[in-house]
């Protein structure tokens, strides 16, 4: 019987050859310099559902010079000889570069990754104290200094605060922080929870303790994340009672409802936004209902900033209609819709007919949904519901992607909106801590350059790193999923590995 895990956690640089600022028009006005892409386009991938992507971010062009045929096809004029800025990856400490090189070397090699995932799966699912990192000092030491350090914030609040400070010091806008405690149930137990079979899921006291522990852990995570950051919230982390209600399509019980409200209130008081995680389809419809209900309660502040964000998985065929339905509800009821857009993370467990046939269709869906949200316009894929309001609601977006082409397309849209003087939505970019640093650091560099060149008047990317905290043992399920993600994204991790090799050579040779 296979266990099913429910997680409680919850350059642009002015390079002469290959990188560009991604803000050509504005920077040209300020510096009379054009930033362009040149050279071979790389292939990149996000996950098992993402398709081939372009290489380094190419710059958008001013319409008065050579407007692209579309925002997704940008011509690159000849490059000028420029004084190079520091490498985007130069902001990383040497230890992070070396660790990333080690991890991506393993994850980009199928012959190395398969046994590594096998070992991680054994550790994550074993009941033996010998294979429990929290009880085996030697195992904990090895993991804590390799894969755990690559993807996790720390075990204690003090370690987490230090990690968050370091991330912000690098130039990121903040973090997306989650708590990594997990609850594991097998398939039979999970299925029985959805039936009126009288299954014993625990004493009332134990179920209440699970909810309170989840509440306290999530509130602590809100406090650790700090103002301006996000916290990832996983409803199934509240325990078996929460899972049972999600499977059955019920409202949260009074204890759980009070716990969710307490988390929302603390987040509002601390200036932290909440990202409600997407999960498997057995529970996702109810998660959507709960999310939109709390968005209705909390996303109507005078600041017009969303506190509650739902997660929308582009690989699901149903996502366009779900997002359109939620958009209509938000518009008709006058609250801001919070959208976290991802490609999807449960390809291996979802019924295949629910998912787009190809990776390319998932990519198309992701980019189309992102554009509709950014422009606040219905389109061919995101269709206005019958009898729904004609206009699009106010919306805040977290574009969560490791796909270079999708990030570039979004930047092109933002540039176009600036040139035309159009209103822009509140928007952030998210990548996992320890992954896609070649993309994330370029976003950070663009953010820094734009601030320096124009005193913050330009549209400035808001990059965030997503990570979790908890003991090494508590984080093993999360770390296993990162390994499984990399198994289906060897091409992208290969791009990151090559970027780390290049950065290490640059440091050894003393180049820019």
UniProtKB/TrEMBL annotation:
Belongs to the proline oxidase family. The keyword Chloroplast does not apply. GO terms for cellular component: mitochondrion. Residues 163-490 form the Proline dehydrogenase domain. Converts proline to delta-1-pyrroline-5-carboxylate. Pfam families: Pro_dh. This is Proline dehydrogenase. The lineage of its organism: Eukaryota, Fungi, Dikarya, Ascomycota, Pezizomycotina. It comes from Coccidioides posadasii (strain RMSCC 757 / Silveira) (Valley fever fungus). It catalyses: L-proline + a quinone = (S)-1-pyrroline-5-carboxylate + a quinol + H(+).
